[in-house]
Amino acid sequence: MRIVVHEDPVGRAEVDHLARAGLAPFGLPGQVEQLRLRALNDGTHAVACTPFRTYGIDLGDIVLLGEDDCVSEVVRSPWHRTLRLAFVADLPAGVLRRAADGTRAEVRPRGWRVSGTASASWPSTSRPMSNPPDCSR
Protein backbone atom coordinates (compact mmCIF):
# COMPACT_ATOMS: atom_id res chain seq x y z
CA MET A 1 0.00 0.00 0.00
CA ARG A 2 1.29 3.46 -0.93
CA ILE A 3 0.55 6.34 1.46
CA VAL A 4 0.23 9.88 0.09
CA VAL A 5 1.53 12.33 2.71
CA HIS A 6 1.73 16.11 3.03
CA GLU A 7 5.35 17.11 3.47
CA ASP A 8 4.69 20.70 4.61
CA PRO A 9 1.05 21.00 5.74
CA VAL A 10 -0.43 24.41 6.47
CA GLY A 11 -2.44 23.20 9.49
CA ARG A 12 0.43 21.33 11.16
CA ALA A 13 0.13 23.17 14.50
CA GLU A 14 -3.50 22.09 14.93
CA VAL A 15 -2.87 18.38 14.32
CA ASP A 16 -2.99 15.79 17.08
CA HIS A 17 -4.07 12.74 15.08
CA LEU A 18 -3.23 11.10 11.74
CA ALA A 19 -5.80 9.08 9.80
CA ARG A 20 -6.20 7.68 6.28
CA ALA A 21 -8.66 7.76 3.40
CA GLY A 22 -8.74 5.25 0.54
CA LEU A 23 -7.96 6.51 -2.97
CA ALA A 24 -9.13 3.54 -5.10
CA PRO A 25 -12.43 5.25 -6.10
CA PHE A 26 -10.37 8.12 -7.50
CA GLY A 27 -8.29 5.94 -9.82
CA LEU A 28 -5.50 5.23 -7.36
CA PRO A 29 -5.93 1.59 -6.26
CA GLY A 30 -3.65 0.45 -3.46
CA GLN A 31 -3.11 4.00 -2.25
CA VAL A 32 -4.37 5.92 0.79
CA GLU A 33 -3.95 9.55 1.74
CA GLN A 34 -2.73 10.48 5.19
CA LEU A 35 -5.09 13.04 6.71
CA ARG A 36 -4.19 15.39 9.53
CA LEU A 37 -6.92 15.73 12.14
CA ARG A 38 -7.69 17.49 15.39
CA ALA A 39 -9.51 15.37 17.99
CA LEU A 40 -12.76 16.79 19.36
CA ASN A 41 -14.34 15.99 22.73
CA ASP A 42 -17.15 13.85 21.32
CA GLY A 43 -15.11 11.10 19.63
CA THR A 44 -15.07 12.83 16.25
CA HIS A 45 -12.17 14.59 14.53
CA ALA A 46 -11.90 17.81 12.53
CA VAL A 47 -9.90 17.72 9.30
CA ALA A 48 -7.02 20.16 9.92
CA CYS A 49 -5.37 20.16 6.47
CA THR A 50 -6.95 20.19 3.01
CA PRO A 51 -6.55 16.75 1.39
CA PHE A 52 -4.67 16.66 -1.93
CA ARG A 53 -6.31 13.60 -3.47
CA THR A 54 -9.32 12.58 -1.39
CA TYR A 55 -12.50 13.96 -2.89
CA GLY A 56 -15.49 14.66 -0.65
CA ILE A 57 -13.46 15.40 2.49
CA ASP A 58 -12.20 18.91 3.13
CA LEU A 59 -10.68 21.28 5.64
CA GLY A 60 -12.92 21.68 8.68
CA ASP A 61 -15.06 18.59 8.02
CA ILE A 62 -15.98 16.63 11.13
CA VAL A 63 -15.31 12.92 10.58
CA LEU A 64 -15.63 9.57 12.33
CA LEU A 65 -12.83 7.03 12.16
CA GLY A 66 -13.30 3.32 11.62
CA GLU A 67 -10.85 0.44 11.68
CA ASP A 68 -7.16 1.22 11.25
CA ASP A 69 -7.83 4.97 11.65
CA CYS A 70 -9.59 5.12 8.28
CA VAL A 71 -12.18 7.88 7.82
CA SER A 72 -15.55 6.14 7.81
CA GLU A 73 -18.02 9.03 7.70
CA VAL A 74 -18.26 12.80 7.28
CA VAL A 75 -20.53 13.81 10.17
CA ARG A 76 -20.64 17.57 9.52
CA SER A 77 -19.13 19.80 6.91
CA PRO A 78 -18.62 23.53 6.47
CA TRP A 79 -19.24 22.75 2.78
CA HIS A 80 -15.89 23.92 1.51
CA ARG A 81 -14.70 23.34 -2.04
CA THR A 82 -11.19 22.28 -2.90
CA LEU A 83 -9.12 23.36 -5.86
CA ARG A 84 -6.40 20.82 -6.68
CA LEU A 85 -3.49 21.55 -8.96
CA ALA A 86 -0.87 19.11 -10.22
CA PHE A 87 2.09 20.36 -12.19
CA VAL A 88 3.23 17.99 -14.93
CA ALA A 89 6.96 17.46 -14.51
CA ASP A 90 7.72 16.89 -18.19
CA LEU A 91 6.51 20.32 -19.32
CA PRO A 92 9.24 22.69 -20.56
CA ALA A 93 10.94 24.30 -17.56
CA GLY A 94 9.87 27.83 -18.52
CA VAL A 95 6.19 26.86 -18.84
CA LEU A 96 6.25 24.98 -15.55
CA ARG A 97 8.02 27.86 -13.78
CA ARG A 98 5.49 30.45 -15.06
CA ALA A 99 2.56 28.25 -14.03
CA ALA A 100 4.01 27.62 -10.57
CA ASP A 101 4.94 31.29 -10.04
CA GLY A 102 1.49 32.48 -11.10
CA THR A 103 -0.20 29.97 -8.82
CA ARG A 104 2.02 30.91 -5.88
CA ALA A 105 1.25 34.59 -6.38
CA GLU A 106 -2.47 33.84 -6.13
CA VAL A 107 -2.45 31.38 -3.24
CA ARG A 108 0.32 32.56 -0.88
CA PRO A 109 -1.66 35.59 0.37
CA ARG A 110 -4.29 33.09 1.51
CA GLY A 111 -1.79 31.02 3.48
CA TRP A 112 -1.62 28.16 0.97
CA ARG A 113 1.60 26.45 -0.10
CA VAL A 114 2.49 25.26 -3.59
CA SER A 115 5.14 22.74 -4.64
CA GLY A 116 4.46 19.87 -7.05
CA THR A 117 0.90 19.54 -5.83
CA ALA A 118 -1.34 22.12 -4.24
CA SER A 119 -4.82 22.23 -2.81
CA ALA A 120 -6.88 25.09 -1.45
CA SER A 121 -10.24 25.23 0.29
CA TRP A 122 -13.05 27.79 0.41
CA PRO A 123 -16.74 27.85 1.47
CA SER A 124 -19.29 26.39 -0.94
CA THR A 125 -22.98 25.63 -1.21
CA SER A 126 -22.32 22.11 -2.60
CA ARG A 127 -23.22 19.13 -0.43
CA PRO A 128 -20.28 17.08 0.90
CA MET A 129 -19.75 13.33 0.49
CA SER A 130 -21.53 11.40 3.25
CA ASN A 131 -19.60 8.12 2.96
CA PRO A 132 -15.85 8.38 2.26
CA PRO A 133 -14.10 5.60 0.35
CA ASP A 134 -12.95 2.46 2.12
CA CYS A 135 -9.23 2.38 3.02
CA SER A 136 -8.94 -1.33 2.33
CA ARG A 137 -9.42 -1.02 -1.44
Word description of this protein:
The mean pLDDT is 77. The chain is 11% helix and 33% strand. With 137 residues, the protein is mainly beta. It has one domain (2-123). It has one helix spanning 93-107; strands spanning 2-4, 17-22, 31-39, 45-47, 62-65, 71-76, 80-86, 117-123. Strands 1, 2, 3, 4, 5 and 6 form a six-stranded mixed β-sheet that branches. A two-stranded antiparallel sheet has the order 7-8.
Compose a concise summary of this entry:
Helices cover 11% and strands 33% of the residues.
Q: Which descriptors apply to this entry?
A:
137 residues, mainly beta, six-stranded mixed beta sheet, two-stranded antiparallel ribbon, 8 strands, globular
What separation lies between the terminal Cα atoms? 10 Å
Number of helices: 1
Number of distinct beta strands: 8
The chain-level structural class is: mainly beta
Give me the oligomer status: single chain
Q: Globular, elongated, flat, extended or rod-shaped: what is the shape?
A: globular
Mean of pLDDT: 77
Share in helix: 10-25%
Biggest sheet, open or closed, and with what strands and sense? 6 strands, mixed
> Over all CA atoms, what is the radius of gyration?
15 Å
As residue ranges, the low-confidence spans are none
Overall tally of structural domains: 1
* β-strand amount: 25-35%
The ordered string of helix (H) and strand (E) elements is EEEEEEEHE
Write the layout of secondary structure elements.
Blueprint: E1 2-4, E2 17-22, E3 31-39, E4 45-47, E5 62-65, E6 71-76, E7 80-86, H1 93-107, E8 117-123
Parallel strand pairs: 1-3
Antiparallel strand pairs: 2-3, 3-4, 4-5, 5-6, 7-8
